[in-house]
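Researcher: Good morning. I'm working through a list of sequences from a screen, and I'd like to move beyond sequence-only analysis. For each chain I'm collecting a predicted structure so we can compare shapes side by side. This is the next one on the list. No need for commentary yet; just the structure.
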Amino acid sequence: MGASAHEHVDLTTPAPTRPAPAEATAGASARRRRPSATVIGVALFVALIALRVFVAEPFKIPSESMEPTLKPGDQALVEKIAGRASPHRGDLVAFHRHGTNAVLLKRVVAIGGDTVGLEDGLLVVNGRTVREPYANTKSQDSVYFGPVRVPAGTVFVMGDNRGISEDSRDFGAVPTRDVIGRAVARLWPPGRWGITH
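Model: Good morning. Structure tokens for this chain:
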């Protein structure tokens, strides 16, 4: 039957709405909080740059001066935190050559306070001959240098291929503040991972 004359229907009041399921609300909230691919990409890029600047970076060997330890084209990983703090004898270090934009990688053969020289191609530090199985002995016959005293706060570096290496014998000891870090591994080529220290 139809409505009586006294009945009044209010068509302006909306029907009550049901609350959205909790799962749908949580899903929408998660979508709003999830970072975009662009944000993730930028964060990864910044992290990689920070890693390279402050922690470690690859260094490509440009010449034959470190043969047979490292060959031209090899990639060495240079660690910058502990390796920069206090280089030790025998370490392979990357450093800025003072007064130039060049970055070199050589072996630390003496540290501040040491006396260093070459006698008939053999390394002599503080009056004692140093055994160097990593050095290219064929290029060292009849080579003499020094002895010289290494100033405090510096390291004396040489290439393992002494016959052709331009190193501290030519440009002097390297201030430790110019040391970038220590080579800890060979990244390339595959199969030749180790670095002799």
